[in-house]
């Protein structure tokens, strides 16, 4: 553990201690980075000029066009939260499914998935569905633990369903395309929704008394008017989803441009619902500014911490520590997911993405793990940070809007089955990489054994001179010369498959 000295683990431990004490994450990262930067210069781990890279890193953060997607998607979600779309969707789908046991729970899951695909924010989904659905569920006999659990879990689907902000941040930290991570998340997010719906189906057969159907006088008749009302809520949502995700997938827009299109679409929907006014705009701008400033400050602090940590050989320490775990790549993945699961008790998903992921990505790549698969897997795991009793943010949001008759212990106990289902999806994705990589562009298949290079006979243009084709060579390359296009040291050779990569 101390093969690279005591400073890398001491730096990591110092950061954790300050966070547990309650200091703001962004300032903790920056302060620890500066403190150990001074220690690194004093102990001659690196020259003072090493820190001259900081201004360039800060400028790179501020000028990163990809990060513009964060305020765009946040602003879009803030506008939609106040547009009345969620209310129409929940009311219509609740009446549509209300005749069957668990009908309201089905409606909450379906609407949670739709809201996740158009808002990208957990707080908006949980609070909106909690305010509208929770009183109705409790009034008509739903078990409080089931009602609170399904609302909290349906809100956290937002973390995985594109256009998730977590996937944007992970793409930036892993150096991969946002579109690839969005495509890779489609399969797991669909499976997550199916697992939730299947759980409600099984529970409705075993314990129908916990989720009775709505009375006929409440749900009304299942007629054309009700179907039209539901479609009027779903069709604009589908149009907005295509406007944001479809333009990314077919290559018409970058994630940043798609976010801007989403904001325009959100304005149109708010206008159609008669909610577009100055007060709504002001609240949406404030919410977007708060989140954006938080993300930028955390990223600046994480960049300072990361630079000093690398100067202390912290990257090599992490790689040495994790690449020697038993079980190879699978053992690494299991350890990392357990580590992040417990880390999520204390850290927000932004903090995990900015602090931990840059340290894990080089190790994953050296083990031949596909980084798109790895990023989606981490995103699924970070969903659980919102459902952890007693620190889950989704549980805090629900507690803030639930009535006093709902006990806090009911909220915590109700979250546990849904937390287990999220962890089940983590296991499925580890042992079934194709769920993530199946939709990715695999590129043209090339048989390297069939590739040959033919040169014209006669004048070789100097290639028969010293160092040319007349010299001893290996694979057509003169002895002692570097192979152009060869993988850098430590990378898998060309043609060697990556674990989790498309075949």
From TrEMBL:
Record InterPro entries: DctM, TRAP_DctM
Region (Disordered): 463-503
Cellular component, GO annotation: plasma membrane
Pfam families the UniProt entry points to: DctM
Keywords: Cell inner membrane, Cell membrane, Membrane, Transmembrane, Transmembrane helix, Transport
Top-level taxonomic group: Bacteria
Keyword RNA-binding appears in the UniProt entry: no
Keyword Membrane: yes
NCBIfam families the record matches: dctM
Family: Belongs to the TRAP transporter large permease family.
Protein name as catalogued: TRAP transporter large permease protein
């Amino acid at each position: 553990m101390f093969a690279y000295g005591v400073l890398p683990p001491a730096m990591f431990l110092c950061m954790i201690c300050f966070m547990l004490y309650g200091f703001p994450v962004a300032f903790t990262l920056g302060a620890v980075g500066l403190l150990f930067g001074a220690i690194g210069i004093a102990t001659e781990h690196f020259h003072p000029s090493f820190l001259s890279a900081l201004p360039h890193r800060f400028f790179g953060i501020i000028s990163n066009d990809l990060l513009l997607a964060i305020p765009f998607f946040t602003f879009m979600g803030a506008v939609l939260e106040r547009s009345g779309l969620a209310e129409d969707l929940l009311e219509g789908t609740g009446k549509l499914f209300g005749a069957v046991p668990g009908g309201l729970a089905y409606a909450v899951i379906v609407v949670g998935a739709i809201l996740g695909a158009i808002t990208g924010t957990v707080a908006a989904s949980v609070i909106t569905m909690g305010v509208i659905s929770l009183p109705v569920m409790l009034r008509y006999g739903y078990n409080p633990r089931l009602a609170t659990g399904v609302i909290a879990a349906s809100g956290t689907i937002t973390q995985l369903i594109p256009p998730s902000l977590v996937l944007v941040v992970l793409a930036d930290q892993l150096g991969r395309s946002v579109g690839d991570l969005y495509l890779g998340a489609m399969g797991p997010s669909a499976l997550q929704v199916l697992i939730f719906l299947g759980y409600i189906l099984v529970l409705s057969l075993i314990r129908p008394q916990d989720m009775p159907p709505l009375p006929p006088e409440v749900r009304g008749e299942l007629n054309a008017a009700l179907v039209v009302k539901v479609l009027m809520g779903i069709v604009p949502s589908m149009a907005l989803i295509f406007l944001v995700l479809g333009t990314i997938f077919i290559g018409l827009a970058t994630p940043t441009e798609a976010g801007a299109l989403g904001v325009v679409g959100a304005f149109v929907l708010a206008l159609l619902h008669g909610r577009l006014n100055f007060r709504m705009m002001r609240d949406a701008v404030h919410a977007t500014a708060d989140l954006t400033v938080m993300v930028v400050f955390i990223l600046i602090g994480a960049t300072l911490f990361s630079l000093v940590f690398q100067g202390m050989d912290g990257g090599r320490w992490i790689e040495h520590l994790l690449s020697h775990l038993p079980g190879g790549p699978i053992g690494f993945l299991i350890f990392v997911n357990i580590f992040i699961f417990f880390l999520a008790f204390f850290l927000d998903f932004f903090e995990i993405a900015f602090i931990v992921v840059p340290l894990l990505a080089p190790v994953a790549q050296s083990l031949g793990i596909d980084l798109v698969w790895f990023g989606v897997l981490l995103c699924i795991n970070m969903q659980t940070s919102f459902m952890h009793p007693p620190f889950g943010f989704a549980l805090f949001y629900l507690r803030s809007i639930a009535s006093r008759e709902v006990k806090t212990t009911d909220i915590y106990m109700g979250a546990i089955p849904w937390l287990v289902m999220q962890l089940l999806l983590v296991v499925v994705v580890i042992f079934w990489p194709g769920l993530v990589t199946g939709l990715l562009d695999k590129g043209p298949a090339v048989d390297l054994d069939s590739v040959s290079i033919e040169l014209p006979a006669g004048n070789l243009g100097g290639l028969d001179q010293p160092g040319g084709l007349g010299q001893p060579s290996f694979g057509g390359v003169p002895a002692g010369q570097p192979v152009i296009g060869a993988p850098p040291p430590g990378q898998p050779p060309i043609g060697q498959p990556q674990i989790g990569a498309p075949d």
